[in-house]
Specification:
Elements lengths: L1 E6 L5 H14 L4 E6 L3 H5 L8 H10 L1 E4 L13 H8 L4 E7 L13 E7 L9 E3 L5 E3 L5 H17 L4 E6 L7 H13 L6 E6 H10 L6 E4 L1 H15 L6 E5 L4 E5 L16 H13 L3 H17 L1 E2 L11 E2 L2 H10 L32 E11 L5 H9 L6 E8 L2 E4 L11 E8 L7 H13 L3 E11 L2 E2 L8
Parallel strand pairs: 1-2, 1-3, 3-12, 5-10, 8-9, 8-10, 13-14
Antiparallel strand pairs: 4-5, 4-11, 6-7, 11-12, 15-18, 15-19, 16-17, 16-18, 19-20
The structure holds nicotinamide-adenine-dinucleotide.
């Protein structure tokens, strides 16, 4: 018996949760339920997080959370419960299977059967943004080695566990050589450990185009957070409907399972909503908690129900569907099919061994880290880079020299092009004059001297070598 936390959520949430729980219990799921209240009522009672501290205690105690969609009230000040939950609980992997149910649900891609594994905690979603000058704002893209290792290993373990043949990685490392470069590098390192599974890397732009056009050539696709957010919706939609997809959010300790759609408030309370998305989330949960026989039984009964043409309004299509049913009747039809398998759609057979649980990340031995320079970012309203260069060259800090100025990443000094458009945000690179390292004292000296000269320095980034390897970007055109 596994104790799980359930939140029935808002809008159609309670109806689809009741249907989902009825189906999995009928299939023999061994679960005990603690129900908590999250979402609209909690938000409107004045809790901007949408969840009480007592509910957090229940979630953390049980570690497994099945969540119906919630309504985030309009207006500022309310924090997204989904984002908070993922980050607080360290749910690093977002897994979203997107499978065609053709010919029973229309899609242009009848052969499609892919699983998107999206990194869930970092990348541009760290939410660290600053305005630095009149003209320039910045969002930090943070990619960590533990983040990459955990998500890539999860993708390969998932592929092995579910008998999938290939893991594809999407990044944009031809441009972002440090951040996406690390993701790709870790992918190559870990792929080498899984010789039984094919691996490949695509640059995200052409990869995404290919996925939207010919999804059947992909199997498992792993990618950083932002790309995964966008492409997992594309994948769910082109597979047939976002209303049919579920997702899991997996951490080292806890996991959360849900439908990918929202609370559809206009459909609430009418016994109309399709419970399939949440049911798919619940099936992923059953696999995760080591009840694959129950998961398999439910999935096969669900496939059989879809195949029989028993459809809720959202996927009902005259000529293809046989019966337009409500939420409760759909659940009843799935329960009646428990023990059956689909005949046209492919039935599933889940691995009967233990749940998919990965080892915890182990910290690596730190590299040798040398400070070799500093990028001083300057807010300056001029237009001719030679002028700011002349001012910066007067900063009197022994042993340092100005080596380059870029504007939005493009080198504008020395030897820039007058055609390059410049904003008021200048990156000014100082390095050691004799090729050795520099010290933090020298950086402080540069900042002090800049302040004395009336130069508006807005931030610095230290330039490091790790184990002798340059670990910062060059200027474009450098
Ligand atoms: P939505 O997913 O709720 O609805 C989009 C459309 O899909 C609607 O036309 C709806 O009728 C239909 N639909 C969605 N799920 C369906 C189902 N199971 N059966 C039949 N039809 C279904 O998206 P929205 O309207 O943009 O958002 C509504 C609310 O949901 C908002 O408050 C939003 O913040 C919230 N939301 C919550 C989650 C979550 O909790 N995970 C995710 C997305 C949106």
């Amino acid at each position: 018996m596994t104790r799980i936390t359930v939140a029935k959520g808002d809008g159609i949430g309670p109806e689809i949760m009741d249907a989902t729980l009825e189906i999995i219990k009928a299939a023999g799921a061994e679960i005990e339920i603690d129900e908590i209240e999250v979402g609209e009522k909690v938000y409107l009672a004045g809790n901007t997080a949408g969840i009480s501290p007592e509910s957090w205690d229940v979630i953390r105690r049980n570690k497994i959370f099945l969540k119906a969609p919630i309504t985030t009230p309009q207006g500022g000040g309310y924090k997204s419960l989904n984002v908070t939950t993922r980050k607080f609980l360290g749910l690093y992997a977002n897994v979203r299977p997107c499978m065609s149910l053709a010919p029973f649900v229309s899609t242009k891609h009848p052969e499609m059967d892919i699983v998107i594994v999206r990194e869930n905690e970092e990348d541009l979603y760290a939410g660290i943004e600053h305005q630095q000058t009149d003209e320039v704002v910045q969002c930090l893209k943070l990619i960590s080695r533990p983040g990459c290792e955990k998500i890539v290993r999860y993708a390969f373990e998932y592929a092995r566990h579910y008998g999938r043949k290939k893991v594809t990685c999407f990044t944009k490392d031809n441009i972002m050589k440090q951040t996406d470069g690390l993701f790709h590098k870790v992918f190559d390192e870990i792929a080498a450990e899984y010789t039984d599974i094919e691996n490949e890397h695509w640059i995200i732009d052409i990869g995404a185009a290919k996925m939207a056009d010919t999804p059947e050539i992909f199997d498992v696709i792993v990618m950083p957070n932002l790309y995964g957010d966008v492409l997992s919706d594309v994948a769910a939609q082109i597979a047939g409907s976002v209303g049919l997809a579920g997702s899991s959010n997996i951490g080292e300790e806890c996991a959360m399972f849900e439908a990918i759609h929202g609370s559809a408030p206009r459909r609430a309370g009418q016994n109309m909503a399709n419970p399939s998305g949440l049911l798919q989330g619940a099936i992923m949960m059953l696999n995760h908690i080591g009840q694959p026989e129950v998961a398999e039984k439910v999935q096969n009964a669900w496939l059989k129900t879809i195949e029989e043409g028993t459809h809720t309004y959202d996927i009902f299509k005259a000529g293809v569907s046989k019966q337009n049913v409500g939420t409760k009747e759909f659940a009843g039809a799935v329960i009646a099919n428990l023990g059956e398998k689909p005949t046209t759609l492919k039935s599933v057979s889940y691995a009967k061994d233990a749940a998919l649980i990965l080892p915890k990340y182990k910290k690596k031995v730190p590299a040798k880290k040398d400070l070799v320079g500093v990028d001083m970012f300057v807010h300056w309203n001029g237009t001719n880079p030679d002028e700011i260069a002349t001012k910066l060259q007067k900063l009197d800090v022994h042993g340092t020299e100005l080596t380059m100025i870029t504007n939005r990443g493009i080198k504008v000094w020395p030897e820039g092009f007058p055609e390059t458009f410049c904003t008021d945000h200048w990156r000014c690179r100082f390095k050691s004059a004799n090729g050795s390292g520099i010290s933090k004292q020298q950086i402080i000296g540069l900042l002090t001297s800049a302040e004395a000269q009336g130069i508006d320095s807005i931030k610095t980034e230290n330039l490091y070598e790790f184990d002798g390897k340059q670990s910062y970007s060059m200027g474009q055109g450098q």
